[in-house]
Amino acid sequence: MGAESIPVAILAGGLATRLRPITEKIPKSLVSVAGEPFLTHQLRLLRSRGLRRAVLCVGYLGEMIERDFGDGTAFGVELSYSFDGPKLLGTGGALRQALPLLGEEFFVLYGDSYLPIDYTAVLAAFRSSGLPGLMTVFRNEGAWDTSNVQFADGRIIRYDKRERTPEMRHIDYGLGVFRASVFAERPAGEAFDLADVQRELVAKGALAGHEVFQRFYEIGSHAGLAELENLLRQGTPL
């Protein structure tokens, strides 16, 4: 199966506290960027890269996203929704909750990331690795955010968002690919973080690494939002 048949789980359930006051009444996915909700840009980019299915893992104000985007027909993609429920499940717990909608393998994309890369190449790298998970990495050198990955000879040697080392020159780019089995072994309804799962896979030598060379964009902060706004208003080809 090609990338068009593999769903993308978009992690869009967070509280987006760093973007307040903008996100006090709307979820991050609906924040306006260059005159349109950020999710519109995100889905347009995914479709241009050949992806046709997305599962939105939503929590905080997720009903607003479903109201505005529906089944995705207007955007040329097939959209489904997985709600956290009474409590926020974290990025890992949200993926566990969404497994019935995702199938045996799927992309995972952060809900504030705009990643203009070749998604088909990422999927091919995942499948050729034979491992249950893959993380895309970018040689960041602390430029765009704090580096958190030690990557050498095509392997992820260390990944940690809290305990950084000087050898960490790469960063988690914001796109992964996983087999469902990685999350299926966790109890349903348990809150946990995707980063914890990724660290466990690294420790077992079970997380593949795929280096990309196009910088990432994000709206997780006011500075990132302003930068992407400027980029998209310029119509810069990516």
Can you walk through the features of this model?
- The two termini are 26 Å apart.
- With 238 residues, the protein is an alpha/beta fold.
- The chain has a seven-stranded mixed sheet, with helices on both faces. A two-stranded antiparallel ribbon has the order 2-3.
- 29% of the residues lie in helices and 26% in strands.
- Helix 3 (90-102) packs across helix 6.
- Strand 4 (53-58), helix 2 (62-69) and strand 5 (78-83) form a beta-alpha-beta unit.
- The mean pLDDT is 90.
- It contains seven helices and 13 strands.
- The protein has helices at residues 38-48, 62-69, 90-102, 119-129, 181-184, 194-203, 222-234, and strands spanning 8-12, 32-33, 36-37, 53-58, 78-83, 105-110, 113-114, 133-139, 149-152, 155-159, 170-179, 207-212, 217-218.
Tally of contiguous helical segments: 7
Structural class: alpha/beta
Averaged pLDDT: 90
Extract low-pLDDT stretches: none
| Number of DSSP strand runs | 13
**Percent range for helical residues?**
25-40%
> Which sheet architecture does the biggest sheet show?
7 strands, mixed
Shape: globular
Distance between the termini: 26 Å
- Rounded to the nearest angstrom, the radius of gyration is 17 Å
- Strand numbers in spatial order across the main sheet: 5-4-1-6-11-8-12
Strand content of the residues, in percent?
25-35%
Can you write the helix and strand succession as a string? EEEHEHEHEEHEEEEHHEEH
